[in-house]
Amino acid sequence: xxxxxxxxLYKKGLKHLVGAVNSPVRAFAxxxxxxxxIKKAKGTVITDVDGNDYIDYVLSxxxxxxxxxxxxVEKAIKKxxxxxxxxxxxxxxxxxxxxxxxxxxxxxxxxxxxxxGTEAVLSALRLARAYTGNDKIIKFAGCYHGxxxxxxxxxxxxxxxxxxxGSKGVPEGAxxxxxxxxxxxxxxxxxxxxxxxxxxxxxxxxxxxxxxVVLPQGNFLKELKAYLETKNALLIVDEVMTGFRSKFxxxxxxxxxxxxxxxxxxxxGGGFPVGAYGAxxxxxxxxxxxxxxYQAGTLSGNPIAMAAGIATLTELKKQxxxxxxxxxxxxxEQMLREKANKHGVDIVVNRxxxxxxxxxxxxxxxxxxxxxESDTKKFAxxxxxxxxxxxxxxxxxxxxxxxxxxxxxxxxxxxxNAIDKAMEAVAK
Length: 428
Ligand code: PLP
Fold this sequence. Notes:
Elements: H1 4-16, E1 38-42, E2 45-48, E3 53-56, H2 71-81, H3 92-104, E4 110-114, H4 117-132, E5 136-140, H5 157-161, H6 172-175, E6 178-181, H7 186-195, E7 199-204, H8 220-230, E8 234-238, H9 250-255, E9 261-264, E10 275-279, H10 281-284, H11 303-319, H12 322-343, E11 348-352, E12 355-359, H13 368-371, H14 376-388, E13 391-392, E14 401-402, H15 409-427
Parallel strand pairs: 3-13, 5-6, 5-7, 7-8, 8-9
Antiparallel strand pairs: 1-2, 2-3, 4-10, 9-10, 11-12, 12-14
Helix pairs in contact: 2-11, 3-11, 12-15, 14-15
The structure holds pyridoxal-5'-phosphate.
Pyridoxal-5'-phosphate binds next to α4.
């Protein structure tokens, strides 16, 4: 396997693109080498510009839950294209997608579509502030909620991978209302409420995927919600990654918790730029044009993206792959453990639904601090050996691997062989 064309494009890309990428997690910063340039993808297979095929566990960081270019999604996109690309006015499909989304999340009477997960979350925070009249927001260390100023603190994968503590260019004032708590530690949330009486709400990744996969322990989310109710503060659940992925009704359905405000992205756009935030009527009625909280978007509710989203969610509901995801993830966990054991490599495997990843360390990973104890040098060796054996996974220790419903037995066999070789390489 060689990567000559990727290398050439990388060098060429450096001239007019920053680091030759449009999102830093694509830069291979912590695993070394040049980023791969992709030519095409179909089903479970992604192909780079050198003609190398890989089984894809990145899935564009989650959206491609049915695999690439599912025929029903493609048909819907082609049909939508014929009517035009964007109108700056409402369309029937926005109502259709809104209904699918609101039906899946009982806590959502209304939804507003935006263009990315980042937009969904920053709008959700504005809404929480508008509704409660309070300014402070609590977030958890290691959770990533997009790149808006207020949330670029202790923000997980991209920043840890690049060893950045936060981001330059974020003014102190922008983060002065952001309080940090520890994942799975309700006491750390309570401590903030004891000090401040102007907290609007708490934002959380219900199953964290941006410090690697980290699971809420016990009834953490339920207890958090019950506590926030006593404080009149809102629970903002960021389901950009988990929405329609953990279950059709997201992690909230899986964990039996109802958010006050839910943020969505990734899967709901079927591969096109869509985000959304939604809540019960009394909260959403704060949003313009019904209320005084302003939020807008030239391309929001884009017709092509709506068509792709509707087709994806309709097919997903029909397939109902959640049991299958759990079985495949269990098999991957077993493979990772068996091969690690065979070659004497220490790993911790965390998984939930269709998100999984191994950490190269002993013990457990229940929060950001424990995730950061992983041996990223070992991960880099593991990563490249998997790539060389036809497996595409996120180039960071601190990212989840994603499963698609298109995965086949043959894909899993190839994955198992590749993991065996990769663990052997790590052990050397
Ligand atoms: N929230 C979570 C939980 C995410 O995982 C991400 C992206 O990975 C975002 C928000 C930001 O979404 P986007 O990259 O679409 O802006």
